[in-house]
Amino acid sequence: MTSQNVSRRGFVAAGAGALAMIASAAKGVPQNEAARRPARQGTAQRRPRQLQFGLQLYSVRDDCSKDLPGTLAKVAAMGYVAVEFAGYYGRTAKDMRKLLDDNGLTCVGTHTGIDTLLGDNLAATIEYNQILGNKFLIVPGLAEKYRSSRKAWLDTAKLFNELAAKVKPQGMLVGYHNHSVEFQPMDGELPWDTFYGNTVADVIMQLDCGNACHGGVDPLPYLYKYEGRARSVHVKAFSKKDGKALIGEDEINWKAFFALCKATGGTEVYIVEHESYAYPPLECVERCLKNLQAMRLTV
pTM for the whole thing? Predict the structure, then answer.
């Protein structure tokens, strides 16, 4: 089985084991090769550890606007170990870092507009994120001028390559986060492929699986088509039947998704995002986390 014949149904319905086989084949690793290799002498076998999750704070944006310190405390109490910002609520970087430290949270990303990475704004953005301890500078969307045609996407890819080179000496990486428009064909190609087919490996592919499904594609093949690029992913539910479905109560085979993130995605950061609420936002993100924990996912 190859990436060309993996459908969205394959992503939703296929088992994690089968998809791990796909990943192994895509990487050119014979199935069960690792099991056949003798263990290295003098090295202890690593015990799998429970997968940890961060929260995109856009999920609880109204709560953050009303009471950021209290909201961060609640997020930490749920069991989230990290957050990704989508705005700073008027706080300085030092104040924000103190809030994180006080709650035992780390910053694993910021959603930052493209303008904050251009010209004189870049230095201030780097400084702010250095104080936060964050290395992932993720652009969450683009204005029409950056994506209106295939040429525009090619120009945008060139821009991101230049930005990646500028932030690399600071130990940082730039990236892009998808919605659904990136998977609508344009000039004979999907914009997602135009962009990632023309960017360097240091441009992070923050794959939002729920948004990709809404765009009409199976997100799974992209984890091995652009191997090692999905260093940060958004864990978001998708259901045709229930637009407010929670993670773990939707149609996505999450174990399969995480198996591919581990096998070929190069994924370091798993970020929960939830935007359609059947319950209060804080309750929704807590339920999502509990459902993920119940899956007993390990890395």
Answer: 0.87
